[in-house]
Protein 1
Amino acid sequence: MKRCLKLTAEQTSELQGLIECGDDVKEVRRAQAILLVNDEYAYRVIEELTRFKERAVLVFRQRYLRDGLKGIIHKRKGSPKRLLSRDQRSEIIKLLMETTPKDHGCAVDFWTTTILSQVIKEKYGVAYKTKRPFYLLFEEARFTFHKPGKVYEKRDEEKVKMWKDEVSPRLQEAFDDPNTVILCEDEMILSSQTTFQKIWLKKGEYPKIEVSNTRVNKSIYGFLNMKTGQCHAFMRERQNMLITSEILKEIRALYPGKKILLLWDGAGWHRGSVVQDFLKEDDKIKTIYFPPYSPEENPQEHVWKKGRSAVTHNTFIHDIKEAAKQFVDFLNVSLFPYKLLNFTARS
């Protein structure tokens, strides 16, 4: 295909930031498409990864070069009508900052839009029709949105704290050493079973997505480079120590001569004899095991979520092998500057 002038480093970084922090799937895919054109991928591959055809991709790129990010993001309407007075808004913001739902007769510690709407209705008789006014109130009170995370029953917080204290100096040393690569590894199962996430539609429209009645799986290995944010993903039929050893050889080929600090969990195929023999032979690879029942400590877990959101959610998977290939391709061309303890990719 005809090649275009390369993006500047600032433009590339700006688009990568939108991919990382954006919450609009189409905007994220537009940014990905522009970066893929910049990296000279074939339009057929770009369409497979982003769902956009060649003409649309070129239009997005032209708009971005002309107008910056505002050329590829949706136009958003202004702030909704505010029914609370200025003093009432100040009172609510103070209430959010100084009290919890338990102070208002609820049995929970955390605020939600539903609880806040009840409090506002009881105090001032005001009822909003949408959630956005509540979002603005939370933002003014300097709240951030969090989805509650899962905590395993067997997780030992004291052991996790001890692990962090022990590992931090080693990470600092590795981050300071330009000859050391830090990789966080994990595996996931990609299934042909359809997964869903919320989407926005016009009123009166209802989405219908074809669902598979059969379940076929592919295993994905992922290694997140904590210094660059680059992911190395590999598709395999299953997970075992033989396959893990083979993939470690591929990782070594990517970083010849480099020291590698590898962080992963205590899965049996990581501790198997074949893998351990490989690690003994390659004395430049050192391993750190994440604490038991603590997947949230592994940044690669966030990479899986980002990949699912961008590639497989709300999609009927006709061919699991092709879907897994698209999933892996997306991971391998995107950057994921996630944190490991207090250390950040590209820091």
Protein 2
Amino acid sequence: MNKSIAALVVAAVVLLGSLLFLNRMVGHNDYQNYQICQSPFGQVTVIDTPGFYVKGFSSVWTYPRAMEAEYTQKATRLSPNDDSIRATFNDGGTADISSYVRITLPTDAEQRLKLHQQFSASTANVASAVKNHLTNCIKASGPVMSASENQASRKAEFNQIIEEQLGQGLFKMRRTQIDLDDLATIEETKDEAGNKVTHEKKARVQATEIVLNKDGKPIIIQESPLKAYGIGIAQFSITEIEYDKTTLEQFSAKKRSYLAAEQAKAERQQEVQQRLMLEEKGRRQVAEVQAEENQKKERALIQANQAAEVAIVNKMQAVTAAQQRTEVAEQTRLETSKLNEIAAIKVTTADLDKKAAIAAAEARQKSIELGGFISEEKRTLAQIAADRDVRVAEALSKMAVPGVIVQGSGEKAEPLTNTLTNLWLMQSQGLIKRN
């Protein structure tokens, strides 16, 4: 029994010894870390590959390839105390800057050994060194702008300036004087006539500006101490800016002033809108009057054009009528001339008929005289008839006998009664026939 217990104890001691031996002889490294090994004889090596390796009773320190640090006013896991950094702006305002930094540790073996030596194998010391350099960067960047500018529109620029100095080094700065609109005051003075004149007086303050080289890049006057150890800045962010009470009061006053200015601006804009509306209304009314007058003008112009066109048409009609009357008169003249020619022919014909009638009467007379069988009474009647025919023929030979009667008007026109009488005589004598 006692021997069994003793054997178990010996076995446990041997197993424990073996485990301790293995732990001291064999090490293991994860992929996200690297290790510094120092042998019992003082030889120091860097283990950068993942997996097991023989460490041979060496002391081992494990470093992450990248680490995080926070420097905040409010307590967090990485910043349990108030680690914020105060910045002073060129208008005298201050603010507590809370930030987050992601730090990359060196990849070169020599720099890893140097970091291990200088920072006492403590990542907390690395985070502290980063904070010290970050403090210089923040304090150098504050005077570049005013607190109002930082609060209103230049936060991103402020973050960029700090991050560049944190990784590269401190920039060369020079002092300058600038005028701040935010701190302007209204002053009253009197002109030559003694009248009050108000004008805005801007506040002039001392500020700093970054000095650039010929390529437009900032000049580095102090290289970042982190570079010497191969420490890099993978990410920098300002997580919160807590302005001091006076600066916040200034912001509130500025906000009230801005709101009052905006309200006044809105009221002015409203007045402008009213004025523009009245002007536009007046323009519209003028346009309506002009349009109405233009319509009247156009109507008058159209009527005048129509009257002119009617006058032209009337004139053309009058000319046409005159031309027609002229043509009718000319036709009448031609017809009258033709009728006169016909009448002359008929007169000649009547004269010939008269001569024939006379010759016939003479012949009958001679026949009567020669025959002797006609009584004295018949001879006398025949003589009367012959004389009558002679006189009628003579009268008819002197009358105009037209083929077509055109009765005109005017001073030289033939009277209608004469024309009718002639027609009746010619019809009664058989010179013309009734249709």
Protein 3
Amino acid sequence: MNVLAIETSCDETAAAVVADGRDVRSTVVWSQLADHQRYGGVVPELAARAHLTAIGPVVRDALSGADAEWDDIGAVAVTNRPGLSGALLVGVNAAKGIALARNLPLVGVHHIEGHIAANWLIDELQDYGEIAMPAVCLIVSGGHTDLIRMSAPGEYELLGTTLDDAAGEAFDKGARLLGLGYPGGPAIQHAAETGDPAAIPFPRAWLNDSFDFSFSGLKTALLRLVEPYRVEPVDTPEPVREPYAAHVPPTFRSDMPVADLAAGFQEAIVDVLVGKTMAAARACNARTVILAGGVAANARLRAAMETAVAEHDHSPRLISPRLTYCTDNAAMIGAAAHWAIQRGDIAGFDLDVFARESLTRKG
């Protein structure tokens, strides 16, 4: 079955055609990054309006890229939770319209399940074959940092989640504090390349060895470290009146050790992510460790996880989607939709959106 999948949970308008939950026939992503950079983060209303403009052309491009006609599509899948409500509504309403007009089954997909399912996708650069269960999944994506035990596709147990800032949010806020711009993850990774992660000590929130995460204290520690270097601009320009306030980067003394601060900050996040994942893998006797989500594209996190898995007592297999499927995309939604269709989880036209919802489904 060919599934037309739509993803609009945040600031990427994406569509894809996926066959039988694995074969990526096409994937199209239209990014709004340039629209949000001047604000230092995603503006929800602007994101929703941009999705309205892009959704039609993106869906048409996905069909064209798959060399598919409407009669070739067997179902329509769409992210309906969690995410920005206005953004989700654009994708869900588009999917409903297509499903109604073409008399196709409609499938609502959990965004986090999509990130996990990205590891099942097959194209010319990725094919993991059979993935052994149980697996421990670390999903680090935007506002989500979740540690999940997966016993089979569709069967999940939430082991831990963020109690405040997620890792992606911490990277974005840390980059703002350092004046590095948005998005924060790539900016901090680039700045940290010439830094010494041990030069400046940063705290780690282990939370009494639980599987939950907290990065707000780390952000506060960085704020206190950069504050002595901050200087006020000599001339403060008259603010320009506009619907949304543009982000004004802070100004610092030239001797601020940006590279060392970025490296230490990044290492503190990576240490906790890897440490808790490995502890969960031991507790669950995991045969596979899955790393997924936008932050999974971070080179330091990938390298540290590879080292930790190699040193693990039972040597589980580490898998992570190639970078194209780490960040938000619709192919992963098509993969997760295949699991939903197999278990008979078809939505009605009353399908709603949910800004927040944990992935906790048991078979």
